[in-house]
Amino acid sequence: MTAVIRGAGEPVAPGEPRIWDDATAAQTFPGITSPLAFTVAAGIHGRVAREYARCLEVPDDQVAQTDSWTPYLLGSFHGRVYGNLLHWYRLAGIGPGYRLNCRALEEVLGATDRVPEEVARSLSPFTFDSRVRRVRSRLWTTGVFLRRALRIEAMMREFRTEFDRVCDRYEGTEYVHGEHAYAEYRRLDRELVLLWGPTTVLDSVVLTLMGAVVALTETYLPEAPRSFRYAAVRPSVATGAPGITGIEPDTYLDGTLGGLRRRLYDLVRVRAARCAAHRDSIRASRARAVGILDPMIRVMAGDLAARAVLREPGDIDYLTVGELCGCYDRVPIPDLRVRIAARKAARAAADGLSAPVRFSTEGAEVSDAQLAEQGWAPCTQIPPARDGEVLTGTASTTGLVEGPAVVARRLRDVSSGILVTESADPDWVATLPSVSGLVIEHGGPLTAVATVARELGVPTVVRVPEATAKLRTGMRIRVDGSTGTVTVLSGVGPE
């Protein structure tokens, strides 16, 4: 990996396209992410995807083929983490129900510009040398998938028990020196992959059920706002509890759908909500894992600084995971400090950039000029929105609200107004009871903050490009959570 990380490190042929979308990463990686955090996560994502294929009993030859794309599910540009979208389509194709999964994937992302159907059909996680082998393998894999899907409740109980056991052991450990911390880190890394791999079936089940909800909504409820399909599978649906403000999809359904159609719709959406709640529980487990990993990293940082491999302990964040492993498995790279200095400079330069929600690249090498053409621009060069200008994103929570914008790139107290934020950082959840509306630049409609906003009935629009650059604190804006628009009513803010 070169000094400054750009992309996923994938050996892409010249002219070969890649599509990058931030919705899969915006909640886990809000804002700029360090090289170490990115490469640790990218490595785990890739190996968890491979383990998922193995758990579905995909043949060994085909599991081996996934090595050509699973390590590259995530990419980093100017420190922002994006999902390598075409590979996420491939991941959705490991299990059954690919057409429904594709349909749901863009819905989960909240994307308005979908991947062309012919492109989606061409994306296969692996190939077979004969049609007979492909059909036989698909039938077997489908059977394994269904067995696992039918025992999700038991799987979740087993996961929680084993995850707690693993975490309890590490949380009680004191790391006496860098070698010890490194050995325990490698052990934890392997255990997490084995734990999380089988649970990826939940993501596939959620995609399939979400695709079914979308299809049923479009068939039975063609007039329903787009945000309704997200409300229909919100977490509280799984328990039968009302939203905090009593906002209920049932109210809408009672007046629009009945009979067998209503029974079928409720059956699918409640199951989808239950599985989505389980999936969110697994995602929340990552925070506990990070809390265990952090003291290991800090001990290694102190050790490497004491050995003069690093100038200071904080420099460890500017290593890749491969470089960190190299410091313990073999002789450290001679120009490590040069790489760290280059990455620090790149981090400082990236701070003032506005990042696109989705963009595309071709080939392995991507220049600053090419990224600028895709929407990366200094925030200072983006003029504020004018009166009457309409910013368009994705409808997330139905509702119409007008009020002053409160633009916040970093977490801080917001006591009133319409919150306009750069990322879907879960920490923003605490501010939601105090705000009248929510605009999110990076993050999809099923992120934690968007989901809680839906429970609270806060009109929300997500995936609004350049929202924090074009909108200024004090502008009076209108947020329409049904149409996914943000309209500037008055006040251009400071130039």
Description:
It is built from 17 helices and 14 strands. It has 495 residues and is of the alpha+beta class. The strands form three sheets. It has an eight-stranded mixed sheet with strand order 7-14-13-9-10-11-12-8. It has a four-stranded antiparallel sheet with strand order 2-3-1-5. The chain is globular and about 70 Å long. The two termini are 40 Å apart. Residues 237-247 have low confidence and may be disordered. It holds the Pfam family PEP-utilizers. Residues 417-484 form the PEP-utilising enzyme mobile domain. GO terms for molecular function: transferase activity, transferring phosphorus-containing groups.
List the helices and strands and how they pair.
Elements (H helix, E strand, L loop, with lengths): L16 E5 L13 H21 L4 H6 L8 E4 L2 E5 H8 L5 H12 L7 H5 L9 H20 L1 H20 L6 H43 L5 H6 L3 H5 L9 H8 L2 H48 L14 H9 L6 H15 L2 E2 L3 E5 L5 H6 L3 E2 L11 E3 L1 E4 L2 E9 L9 E6 L13 E6 L5 H9 L3 E3 L4 H4 L5 E5 L4 E6 L5
Parallel strand pairs: 9-10, 10-11, 11-12
Antiparallel strand pairs: 1-3, 1-5, 2-3, 4-6, 7-14, 8-12, 9-13, 13-14
* Count of β-strands: 14
Mean pLDDT: 89
Main sheet overview: 8 strands, mixed
The level of helicity is 40-55%
Estimated radius of gyration:
23 Å
Total of DSSP H or I helical runs spanning 4+ residues: 17
- Overall number of structural domains: 2
Low-pLDDT stretches are: 237-247
What proportion strand? 5-15%
* Shape estimate: globular
**What structural category arises from helix and sheet content?**
alpha+beta
Q: Give the CA-CA distance, first to last residue.
A: 40 Å
Enumerate the strands of the largest sheet in spatial order, edge to edge or round the barrel: 7-14-13-9-10-11-12-8
